[in-house]
Amino acid sequence: MNSKARARLVHLLISKSIVEALLIAGVAVAFFFATTNPYLRGVLDTADKTSVSGWAVDESRPSARVELQLFIDDRFVAAAIADKFRPDVHEAKRAEDDWHGFVFSAPQLPAGNHEARVYAVHSNASGARKTLQLIGKPYRFRIE
Amino acid sequence: MITDRSLAAWEIVSVISSVLIAEWILSASAGRNKLIIAVPAALAFVLIIGSHFLRGESLRDLGIRLDNFLPALKLLSLPMIIIAGIALLIGFLSGARPDFFRWHAERLIIFQLALGFGWGFLQQYVLQSFMNRRAQIILGRGTASVLVTAVIFSILHFPNPWLMVVTFVGGVVWAFVYQRQPNLFALALSHGVMTWVLVSALPPSALNHLRIGLKYFA
Predict the structure, then answer these.
(1) Worst-scoring range by mean pLDDT, A42-56, B58-72, B94-108, B151-165?
(2) What's the confidence (pLDDT) of residue A124?
C-alpha cells in the first residue's frame, strides 16, 4: 500500500468517525427532547401528614394542565392533574390562568422522616414513550 | 507514520463501532422508523469498499469467485455435519422436537432459505473479506487471526449467550476455511444452512429469535 493510498484511507476513517460522532450527538439531543420537556416549571410547596401541594405549568402549552404523579419515600402514591386554583401563580406571570395548582392527600405514614417527590408525566411526540420529570425539588418532612 | 498493521486495526475497530452503534444506540432510540440504522451500515460499507480499492484487493482476493466453490464446500462439510449433529442432540436432550419449518413460519421455507443465504453472504463478506483479511495483516495467516475473527463475530452477537457460543464456533470454522479456500458463496451457503439447522433444532427460547444488542431485551 503506497503512502498516498494510506493517507486516503486515514482520511476516510477520520471522516467516518466525524459523521458517526455527529449522528450520535444528534440522536442524543433528539432523545433528550423525546424524554424531557425543558419548558416544565413548578414547585412542591408543602408536604405534611395530611397533604402534598404545589403548582406545575408547561410553559410551551400554558393553557394545558400538567399530569402529575406523587411518590413518597420512592413509592408511588397517586396520580393527579395540576388544575387546582392558584391565583398567585397567575399573578407571578408563571401561568396564563389561575388553575395550575395541585393537592394530593397524603397516605397513612408512620412517624419519622419522609421525602415527597412530584413528577410530571411527559409523553414523546408519537406517544410511544412516557417519562417522569421531577417538579421542583424533593420535599423532606417529619411526622411526629 | 501509521503502519499497515495499525491502519488495519483502526479499520476493524471502526467497522465494529458502526455495528455497535446500530445495535445498541440506534435500535433503542429509532422508534418505529428503523431507517436511521442504515446510516452507520452505509458508512461501514463506504469504508469497507473504499478500503478494498485503496488496498488494491480484487473480487477474487475477497472470495467472490466460483473456481474454488467445491473445495471450500468440501472443507466446510465435516464441521457442518458435526455442529448440526451436536445441535440436534442438544435439542433432543432439552426436550425440543426439531421443526424445520419454524424459521419465520409465516414465509415459504425456500424463500426464507434464500434470504438466509443473502444475509449470510453479507455477514461473511464483512467478516471474512474485511475483518479476516485485516486480522491477517496484523497477525498473519493462522490460528491468531482465525481466533480474532471468531471473537469479533461473537462479540457482535452480545448479549445473546447461546448465539455468542454458536457464532464463535461458526466463526472459527468459517475463518479457518476462508484462509484456505476463500469463497464467499460456499460460506454464505453454510451460514444459511447452519442458521436453519440451529433454529430448527435448538429450543426456540435458547436463541431468543436470534435477537442481539438492545433488542435482545425487548
Answers:
(1) B94-108
(2) 78
Of A8, A27, A128, the CB nearest to B26: A27
Average pLDDT over residues B20-25: 90
Residue A74, Ramachandran bin (φ over 0: left; ψ between -120 and 50: alpha; else beta): left
Each residue's pLDDT tens digit, A93-121? 888 899 999 999 999 999 999 999 999 99
The residue segments making up the domain with residue A29 are: 1-35
Average pLDDT, chain B: 92
Task: Looking at the structure, tell me whether residues A45 and A26 fall in a common domain.
Answer: no
Measured CA distances, B82 to B94, B163, B172, B196, B202 (Å)? 18, 17, 14, 15, 15
Together in a domain, A30 and A45: no
Would you call B2 and A20 a contact, using CB atoms and an 8 Å cutoff?
A: no
pTM: 0.81
Domain ranges of chain B: 61-217
The interface pTM score, or ipTM, of the predicted complex is 0.85
For chain A, how many structural domains are there in total?
2
> Is A12 close to B46, i.e. CB distance below 8 A?
yes
Flag if A10 and B2 touch (Cβ within 8 Å): yes
CB contact under 8 A, A17 and B40: no
**What is the C-alpha to C-alpha distance for residues B175 and B187, in angstroms, rounded to an integer?**
9
Q: Do B11 and A9 touch (CB under 8 A)?
A: yes
Q: Which of A20, A33, A124 to mutate to test the interface with B (most CBs of B within 10 A)?
A: A20
Which residues in chain B have their CB less than 8 angstroms from residue A19's CB?
Answer: 43
